[in-house]
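Q: My labmate handed me this sequence with no annotations at all. I'd like to see what the chain might look like in three dimensions before we decide whether it's worth expressing. Could you predict it?
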Amino acid sequence: MSENKSVANKKLIFPHTYAFLFSILLVAWIATYFITPGEFQRETNKETGQTTVIEGTYRIIDSNPTHLFEVFKTIPLGMENAANIIFYIFIVGGVFGIIRATGVIEAAIDQLMVRMEGRERLLVPGFMFLFSIGGFSFGMAEETIIFVPIGIAVARAAGFDAVTGTAMVTLGAASGFIGGMLNPFTIGVAQEIAEVPLFSGFAFRLSVYVVILLFAMWYVARYAFKVKEKPSHSVIFDIEKKSANSTSIPPISDRHYLVISVVGTGLVINIYGVMKWEWFLTELTASFIIMGVAAGVVGRLSFYKTFDSFVEGAKAMTFGALMVGFARAIVIVLEEGHIIDTLIYSVAHLIEGLPQTYTAICMFLAQSFLNFFIPAGPAQAATTMPVMVPVSDLTGVSRQVAVLAFQYGDAITNSIIPTSSVLMGYLAVAGIPYERWVRFVWKLILGWMVIAVVALIIAVLIGLR
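A: Here is what I predict for the chain of 465 residues:
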């Protein structure tokens, strides 16, 4: 009896993301001994700089399996090959560490509360819009965890519950993350690998972002006011009865307005630089450094505090940044074993003859499935885009649509999969059991997936490039 009880009490343990990536690396190495090697001919477009697979040129070549020691060498090689992306992630994370240290985000929330006093119906959309900006501009994800207690405090003060407070922060950021118009960690990485202009397709992504955000606002507000009207409708009603509101929120000041001005100006310059001056990762990284130092100065941080906050922000990015190098190592093994083109040929052959809209949807579903195992966006981009880009070339689906399929597949399920460290982190802070959160959020995730499928179909039909 006690033995059965102990078995029943055992929790399902998911593998560490790095362990999973290392396992894939070993599987890729073993595959070089069994999969027939082959290669396509490629050509480079002199005008766009894109390297594309030439259809009909696939041929079988001599076997060249990778030796075991070479497998371990691919990890530092992967870090070296992806160094520009890895350090971009570190530096952007560091800059936003400085911005957070000025207290501007908490102060902006306080100002939002003041303006919405007596207008609770605007509270949910106001909060979600504010955090969505962080989601689409700098990929706000881990950062939401520190704001969840504030969101809960605000929600309970308005008569809502902790689920509403958590959703206002995290699902707001998630809506922006799905839109991803300026997200350097997902769109930036994927578009670089796909060799399409950085942050291109902005207008289309903006349109989809608006739909995604409005649907999320309606969904969360509908739940919130059901709870306000009848508290027993809360999915955590029993937990709410034991909870108290104790989180204080700091007021906004002139220095916070100056920080907001610096960050806003910096983001506008980055957008203009990408569109008009052909800026890429190096220029954007330099611009972010200037933005961070300027934010520290106007935010009245000491030089020590500025750079200490930079280091703290960069440290928070370590988990996701180094994954890019691990993921790149997998691609190196496949390339050196000459089996990556065989995989591309097989996938393209499998979906050959399907309408392009179906191909785009299949890409989205494949990315959504892989997100369960590789929930870090940069790592997933580095792992899958080297395969998806040639497949898109061979099937006639534009590379921009392939990036979209990755973007939606990576972002949407982050708010429900148990392998997401961000999700499990903010649920722990909020004191919300995972299964209760799933009861609340699953219909929203389903709605977002439907919107993504429709968006992909439209993108194919209008020839988005």
